[in-house]
Amino acid sequence: MTNITSHQISGKNLIYWLVATVCLMFSLVLFIFIDGYQETTAKINNHKHDLINDDIRASIKYFDESMSMSARLFAFTGEKKWQKRYQAHEKQLKAVLDKAEQQSGLFFNNFLFDATEFANKQIKTTESTILANEATSGSTILLNEKYQKNKQDYALRIHYFSTNPNDAIRLNQLQSQIAYIDEILTMSARMAAFTGDSYWKNRYDRMVTILDASIAEALERTNNINLASFLAEVSAANDKLIALEEQAFLYVEQNQLPEAVEVLFGDEYQVQKEVYAKGIEKFSIAINEEVNEAILNAEQYIKIKALIIFIVLSVFTAFIFYLTRRIKNWEINLENRNVELEKKKNELEIFSYSMSHDLKAPLKSIQGFSKRIDKYIATEKFDGIKELNSHVISNAVKLDKLVDDIMGIIKAEKINDLVEEVNFSLIAESISNDISALDNTHDVEFIADFNHNTDISCHKHSLYQVLTNLVSNAVKYAKNDIDDAFVKLETSMHAHDMLKITVSDNGIGISEAMHDRVFTMFFRESSTVSFGTGLGLYLVKKQIENMSGAISFSSDKNGTLFSILLPIVPVVHED
Amino acid sequence: MLTECNSILVVDDNASDRLLAKFAIEDSGLTENIYFSNDGKEALDFIEDYDKNKSAYNKDYPPTLILLDINMPAMNGFEFLESYNKFNEDERYNSVVILMLTSSHSDDDKQKASKYKSVKGFLTKPVDEDNLRAALEQAVATD
Questions:
Q1: CATH number of B12-103+111-129
Q2: Domain boundaries, chain B
Q3: Among A364, A402, A524, A535, which would you mutate to test the B interface (most chain B Cβ atoms within 10 Å of its Cβ)?
Q4: Which of A280, A384, B57, B81 is the most exposed place for a label (fewest CB within 10 A)?
Q5: Cβ contacts (< 8 Å) between B127 and chain A: which residues?
Q6: pLDDT tens digits, one per residue of A270-329
């Protein structure tokens, strides 16, 4: 006997594996997502900080330049407006430095900030000294070596404060640089006009090339029409300013310093300066907008990515759950089928075992009697042959009946007869005829009483066989010693949609020890009253089950009651 | 070799088989005292009654041989053997030989029957003088 259950695929294990895989995938995706999220967030934050730092750096540089130049111009001219400008820019620089302190404190090594702060203090100390002293005497201090060294140191440290390859950030840097160099150029030209010193001309020439390069790079990097137009404005104003400044330098060369000063402080120069400053400002605003937009886009991108990952994971999880359920159902089905198969197999084993005994028994008897008849003929004992032959006949009949019943069972396992409307009166009539034809019947009254109130459709032939079987059993096992032996066939409605059929008798009953064997193959209640093949009730149960019905019984020494419940199939009338 | 029996009990639900067994016993001349039971339950009742009223049977007490069919209603051959076990404690039953009657050659049946020490062999139906003698020879040889 092979064990089917041990070979079945374990759905439970499969489910465990699936769940484990899902968990693993979940954590993997989550890890990748968190990693990616952190990276992108860090990038955005870096951009933000870069932008802020860059602005800080540019502002410091610019204010430093404007302050030192204002200090110088004050030293030369003694005009109060330079002093005022110096003081105004000093306040602004201080504000920028505070901002820088916050930024550095949060995100950067304080070293950079300390360095700038230190350099800045050095310069300011020198400059303050000048502002406090006589204007003219200060000019020598401002141009001395120590001051210059501090300036260079300061510029160098500022440069390291921030570097960034990003286009928008770089443009922002360039914009600051352009504004810064413009300040240098203007102030250098003015200093040249006041002092006639060639140092300022040299500085101017050096810075002009850097300015040109910066504008060119900015133009190259700009991929936005607005930015390009602002840059063009700046560039045009720059050209004009440079032309005016070149003219001023020409005057300086010819030692006509007052004319040079006039050009550099003239109306036209001021107008171009404003155009230039406005252009730079517009460019600055636009570039900031662009950078902010890029940051917003990046943030949006993260959100969308998170949403997509969430949706994908949800769908995937739902799919896995669906799959798990399917597997579970599949496993349950498989188990049910296994149970059913096991049942069938056991039935078949019992069937074949019983078959070898019961089917062979009458054959063996026939064989024995035939041999005996042979012997009688040989010894010319003809008298006894008739009796022996009657046994041959009865065993042959029994064998025939057995084969018929077996065929009935095999048919019941397969397709059924047609579903037809059942006329119970006709069935009762047929059964009545059948039992009157039975041999050795006692005087048993057959009573039919039908109380169902609807037309019934079912497997008519099967139902007829079942009822015949039950009624003839009742007749066979009727009590010999009573006068009022009966068998009753009754019908009634049960719960509106079921038909209840009962076959009851006042026969010998089935002994309680036999109750659990009644519907098994080759069951016979008694050896003294043994008529059938023992397959009748087994066949009855099979047929009722094939009609989706159920059969039960109760029995004692006063009689037996079989109850059948059948689902009512509505009758289809052909119009 | 068992040539004479006090009595023989034939337990079979099939009337034809009972008759054939009777013919075989008569032909073999083992005994004239043959008793019949329709199933295991009847056989058990018979032995109990036999035991209680031994004076009535005195001469042929106890049955030397029981021919026992396997498939019977009410109480089959194996169920009978299970109940019969209690008699084995009584030494008077030690010499009782039980032969199982069968129409097939089922190994399962042989295995099941081998558990009972009183079962000394199998007799394939139809029972006649020859196979009855052969089975008895075998039964005594294995004893």
A1: 3.40.50.2300
A2: 12-103+111-129
A3: A364
A4: A384
A5: 368
A6: 888 888 888 888 887 887 777 777 777 877 887 888 888 889 888 988 888 898 888 889
